[in-house]
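Newbie here. two chains, one complex. Structure please?
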Amino acid sequence: MNRTNWRKLKDKYMYLILVGTALSILSILTGIICFVLYSGWSALSWDFIFEPPRDNMTSGGIWSPLVGTFQLIVVSIIAVIPVGVLTGLYFSEYAGKGLFPKILRLAVRSLSGVPSVVFGLFGLSLFVIFLGFGSCLFSAGLTLACLTLPLVVTASEQAFRAVPKDYRDASYALGATKLQTLVKVVFPSAASTIITGIILSIGRVAGETAPIIFTGAAFYTSKTGGLFNEVMALPYHIYILATAGTNIEQTRPIQYGAVAVLLALVLGISSVGVWMRVRMKRR
Amino acid sequence: MIDSRNFSFANSGDKIASMVVHGVSALGLIVMVFILWFLFAEGIPVLKSVTIGDIFRSSDWYPAEEPPALGMFAIISGTLIVTLLSSLIALPVSYLFAIFTAEIAPSWLRNILKPMLELLGFLPSIVLGFLGMVVVAPWMQGSFEILTGLNLLNASIFLGIMILPIVGSLVEEALSSIPEELRYASFALGATKWETISKVVFPAALPGILSASLLGIMRSMGETMVVLMVAGGAAIIPDSIFDPIRPLTSTIAAEMGETPVGSAHYHALFFAGLLLFLITLALNMLSAWIESKGKIAQQ
């Protein structure tokens, strides 16, 4: 066989390998999702969602962990929005070439790589012990807020940077101050991108387990509501049911149901964010 | 008069806003400093109970005994081995997937695959850990006739599945950012598609690919729930890929709840966190450095 034919043959083989890899990965990943949703389907009912766990968590539903997960989302998002958005604003509008912006950028980048369980250790020592909040919703929510901070900062900075300079110039030309320009011109046109970033970080918060294990997640609690009480959370509830519950084999349907709900919740929220991002990029 | 007063009022608003933005944005830095501070302040005191040599050389991890044995050699190697194996599984596959998405797939398919990959990056690790434990472990145990299905290989596979979409997305971005002209030039010289990809596009995107790979390795190393549920949890140095292991992350997650605050065991777990933090930080900084070098080279 001459050299040209061999090159063309190799090209064909590599094409097949690439297509094959792509197909198998896609089928594995979608297979995982479909398998979970399918296996959880039989356990799902309105009662399953709206009933708290009963009889040592061997029957009943997932209402209290579900509520706990929503509470964690609310606390962490309320904490992370002002800090994340203003830091993004700082990078885009205020940061010069000095030392402080450099260090701050380094810190945010480092935060994005800190392992989630290390955030757990940090939350334990700062919020639970040092500030004395104890193991509770508030501590766990703040820990999760720190975890998502880099995500919100990056999204906000990109959003502010995407606002054309002409808008700002036009506003200054009308005699507006920097604050007025930011509040009335820059912020409104950046808002939708920022919201996308926030939705994506909600998706991240909803699925996290490691940071809340020792900062506020409860094995079981009958109370819901208090900011300074421990909360049940859906991911941790799944972990408990699968590893430490009573009658692990017997409660498999409940476990699959809980996993399916968590997966639908996280992928549902994240897909809204991803979809919004795609739509904005195309414009 | 009124005008000038208004003006100064508006100006002071500007100043206050600037101060607020500066102050609030410093919080990110403060969080980082606190993380470092607490890891050192709670981790270093373990050296009062054991020597640094014992921690790194001994594999005896019996933290509850008196005096406690706090050798982390097996745990640290567990982390390194599971990170290595999962990267070996996931990185090549994610490169191939990214090449397919960026170079081969028609644009309508790319517009579906890219968001899909991004979305799969949000798969909660607890879901993957659960599947590894409940579905794959019993199957593995039965079909390979091994002691336990909760082992190094199983954990590596699921860590691999977790980092695949993350690395794939980033590599795809690196490949797409290479200008079309380079490809046209290569085709004009008579190169085939694969030759263009492997000899022109891939080398040109190498900084981005390297930095993406490092981020993937970092993620895999810091992941907790998958290894906690799937790796088996034995603090031994594995002889084969079917042996259970116990990495740093799952040791912290499994034991922190049961240890009294301030005990040697407590400090040892913070020390483990410190090690984990320093290694992942180094990977992250290396990745950022390569990224910035690549950007400069492209300009």
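Moderator note: The first strand of chain A starts at residue 53 and ends at 54. The first helix of chain A runs from residue 3 to 41. Thread marked as resolved.
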